[in-house]
Hints:
By secondary structure, the chain is of the alpha+beta class. It has helices spanning 8-19, 25-32, 36-48, 82-90, 116-127, 158-166, and strands spanning 68-76, 95-100, 107-113, 132-140. The protein has six helices and four strands. α2 (25-32) packs across α3 (36-48). The protein starts with 7 loop residues before the first helix and ends with a helix.
Amino acid sequence: MAHHNLDSLDKKILRLIAEDARTPFLEVARACNVSGAAIHQRIQKLTNLGVLKGSKFIIDPEKIGYETCAYIGLNLKHPEKFDEAIEALRKIPEVVECHYTTGDYDMFIKMYARNNHHLLDIIHDGLQPLGLSRSETIISFNSAFNRQLPIVDMPADEEEEEEENEE
């Protein structure tokens, strides 16, 4: 996966919008001492590079009736059927994340259920038909925190520093 070197303006923009994606571009522009058009262009560039992956409102699952959060490690009887298993998992709306992993599991998923009975139904009706050799379910009592990665100052390429100084 490509690593993108970000200049200081990119990093400042990312820091500002990571805190609140609804911050108006003109407010970001004022904080960065550049024009609104420049911010718009930078946001577009960061989106095109895949650094930014959209913006969204975050729904609190508990507030809409999903009281159980579970992480489940999955092992397939037939690992060559990964793609089929992934497509089946996509069809289970309560599964919100799926990761290929190393270690004890082929895949690790995060899901929400209305309660433990609903969780059991999803495991029985949705996950078992995937052809699992085994699974392990870990129920989360509560999320201690959830955050974006920090935008760190990594050494920029010499060419980029020269370009910045010319601007």
